[in-house]
């Protein structure tokens, strides 16, 4: 058998303190997982069942790279997020067993074409054009659990050109990492290389050409993204 054209390269993210790369299979994102952010998006933060959207694996961008201001938007937003990386797959995972399936954690930035997302939401349509565009998932180096444990509290902070825009604590997550893993696994089989972007705190806002966006999470370091000219 031969492919009719060359298969795409395997998307991957960096591993902290290593030359190794971690292959990315899928990217799952949790919507409105901090109460204050739910309120700023005009939604009730009650603990309803979580909902998910996805990004393509090849949307990943390493820290330090420049991301062009994307096409078809006039309201391009940052979203600081904790990323959990699955290392052992499974389905119907019990919540108490969930953390055994995590390989490591990273700092993430869920870049969003907010105007397209909100228009789709108003029309009852999928969020893909607002969330799943090229180079929309900035993912920092993944820190193995053996080195950092399982972060469930600590600062998560985002700055734009040095000005603090988001400043919260991981303890404020509505749905914890173990709960997210268990809930997802009862719907979809998780496998190694699945990335879970766990939601963003309040304070989301716009980026402009020439901006530098930095995200920090206690114990996981920082990532930085420069915003280039419009694509």
UniProtKB/TrEMBL annotation:
Gene3D superfamilies found in the cross-reference section: Fumarylacetoacetase-like, C-terminal domain
Domain Fumarylacetoacetase-like C-terminal: 27-226
Keywords: Hydrolase, Metal-binding, Pyruvate
Name recorded for this polypeptide: Fumarylpyruvate hydrolase
PANTHER family: ACYLPYRUVASE, FLUTATHIONE S-TRANSFERASE
Transmembrane domains' residue ranges: none
Keyword Transport: no
Top-rank taxon: Bacteria
Species of the source: Lutimaribacter pacificus
Entry GO MF terms: acetylpyruvate hydrolase activity; metal ion binding
SUPFAM superfamilies: FAH
Entry-linked Pfam families: FAA_hydrolase (PF01557)
